[in-house]
Amino acid sequence: MAFFESLSRLVAAVLFVSPFSHILVQGAGNVEYPVGIANTAAYGTINFTEIFAAYGHDKSNVAFGTSAYNGLTTFMRALPVRCFGADAATKYDVAVLGAPFDTATSYRPGARFGPNGIRQGSRRMSLDSINVAAKIRISDELDVVDCGDVPMVTTDNKVALRQLELANAALLSGSSLRTWEGKSIAKDGKFHPRVLTLGGDHTITLPLLRGVASIYGPVSVIHFDSHLDTSRPRKLVGGPWLPDEVVPVGHGSYFYYAHKEGLLAPDNANIHVGIRAPIDSWEKYADDRAFGFVISHAEVVEEVGWQGIVKAIRDAVGDNPVYITLDIDVIDPGMAPATGTPEIGGFTTREIKKILQGLSGLKVVGADIVEVAPGYDSQDEITQIAAANIGREILGLMAKTPLTE
Predict the structure, then answer these.
(1) Is residue 317 located within the same domain as residue 387?
(2) pTM score, whole prediction
(3) What does the mean pLDDT of the chain come to?
(4) Inter-residue contact 404 to 189 (CB < 8 Å)
(5) If residue 32 lies in a helix (H) or strand (E), which one and from where to where?
(6) Residue 349 to residues 58, 121, 232, 306, 355: CA-CA distances in angstroms?
(7) Which of 4, 226, 325, 348 could form a disulfide with 343 if both were Cys (CB 3.0 to 4.6 A apart)?
(8) Contact criterion met (CB below 8 Å) for 223 and 292
(9) Can you give the residue range of the structural domain that contains 313?
(10) In angstroms, rounded to a whole number, what is the distance separating the alpha carbons of residues 337 and 107?
(11) For residue range 17-35, what is the model confidence (pLDDT) as tens digits?
(12) Closest Cα partner for 76 from 397, 402, 395, 405?
């Protein structure tokens, strides 16, 4: 009862405070704050250094705050950097780049919202935390920044993909913040930043591989997906294309073009992992082999376990520089429903984490996570959270192994 009497007296006192008064209340830790929202005259006396330091970090002068639930949403709370503008001179080891593009999909669109969805899924995560299973703290080994999104146009796929190609190439052409003992595997012998791209539909992998190949030469691709994505572009009989028109690249044919352009490692040193989608002809498997891939089907995990999947990947890529591209539909739609072309019977999130962790020691020159379409996600954002955790595992692989000979 005494408490309510004291509270009543305090409320009465506040009611009599003039909006222009300088009455201050002493708070814990010697923090002073004005009584009442209307006390605008006291704003100049507020010590924001103390007020914003609730968890031991003064954020009163931070341009863009990042945390689990407030501030600017970046991937794993990475430093936001204007990589193509005012902060272009800033050096880093890994750039996170958004590619909001979904106008080359064959079924459900929506992956243009994937970059921000994956960032949203990463809000609880931090580059400074220790990945216990992988035994790595990313920030100990790499400086990771978030460059935001490439503003890809929505009306012309050729232009949009060119925008991404130029942006990615610009990031890769710089020098990384850190250098490592030994000779770089880059063609020019220098250490360059790596890029983790958040898609976006899977078509974006083609322009990204062009940039990577310009620095490192042809690379072995580890392709996590339920679909092959090596379809030959073809005109349907009686279709709408004129005789002199070419069928444009899409999210099911980009590897055909990557092979034609010489971006992929030779001797079938590239691998699809998690394949389980139906095909319209056995010729697709013959073409896939001719285009440089071997296949690990999703179903074999029942017989060989995640260890067998890891062995198949390592046997395929050897010691080559590796590019990882992961379509979120490699995960079973029960755990990752928010994607454009879902296929049942995929990996669990635990299996994909174990597989990725089993690739420790591979020289990962770049990576992308694609086909996350948040509009189809559950209320608890399970697809976006899964994609964000996959991104953490990929960054862990980069952190563990420098790109040296």
Answers:
(1) yes
(2) 0.85
(3) 87
(4) no
(5) strand 32-34
(6) 37, 14, 31, 12, 10
(7) 226
(8) no
(9) 75-400
(10) 14
(11) 333 334 444 444 444 444 4
(12) 395
